[in-house]
Automatic annotation (TrEMBL):
Keyword set, alphabetical order: Membrane, Transmembrane, Transmembrane helix
Chain segments annotated as transmembrane: 12-30, 36-54, 104-126
Lineage: Bacteria, Candidatus Falkowiibacteriota
Protein's recorded name: Uncharacterized protein
Domain of life of the source: Bacteria
Keyword Transmembrane applies: yes
Amino acid sequence: MELSNRYYRELVFWVGILATVSYRIIILLNRLPQHIWADVAWYIGTIGFVWYFAHRYRIENKRAKLIEDINLIEKIHNLKTLTKTDCEALEYTLSSLGSSKASWNYIVIFITSALALFADIIIRFII
């Protein structure tokens, strides 16, 4: 599937969220008598992170290659006229930066990590 496809980006966003939550609930699932659920969460989280970060790697490489291939930074620096390809590359790069939901994944990672940390401290030291 095309990396810039809106539905694929949406899918990868939710895969990242699911992976993050799966990793964070392992601490709670380990308290259950059946550890199979912690194992399931670990596999879901690991596979999800592999998929999510592979996607992010491809996106970052595509952006960097695009900028380098058309020498966009130098053209902008020298205020040269941009070609149609240059404009399309700049439009893609700027729009993908503006529509990226990566920051939301980072927020979820931060919040769920903090909640997991507090839950572990409560479980270990208070309960």
